[in-house]
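Sequence in, structure out. Go.
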Amino acid sequence: MTVDNATCNDKTIKFLVKMFPTIYDGGKHFHIRCMAHVLNLIVKIALKYHNYHVECVQKAVKYIKGSTQRIKKFKKAIKYVGLETNTFLCGDRPTRWNSTFELLKTTYELWEAFVEFGIKEKSYEKDIQRVPDRLDFEAIKEMVDFLEKFKTETENVSAPTKPLVHRLIREILDVNLHLKKWSTKVNFVHLIPDMKDKYDKY
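Output:
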């Protein structure tokens, strides 16, 4: 049975457990959290810590996509720097972290075009106040490398047409190993403990 993450459903589950007196281990394992949702909560912590760089590229993408003329100029910038790609800037939705991941990934892939666009579009820096620089793109690249694992795990536990329960333990342990691996990196040492706390909670 699948239910939403709501207090009334928690009470319903407790009621159902009482209706099954012989349930295994007193029903402690009857109610489990949605793993995709837990991953979402963990990732949001990472995005919050790197908000300075993330917001900078979000504003730049929003600015470029906000005008047909700017979109044309950015596409010219892509061609000018010699990027042979069908990739273009994508927007993100606050409620879906994976859309933010895709935005960051495409932004990094097109970072040279951003530089060229900034040279040609004189109002760019004036309009958005702070344009993404080399440090922003380096931070975004590291963030994309870190989040790639969570994107893969989310896809692994979100397939609607096949059973997934047998995979959960492996995926859960995989996330733990990933957090441990990145806990020694300078730009992540401050955020991993909070992510690990959220992981341990669920």
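Check: Residues 134-156 form the longest helix (23 residues). The chain has a mean pLDDT of 86.
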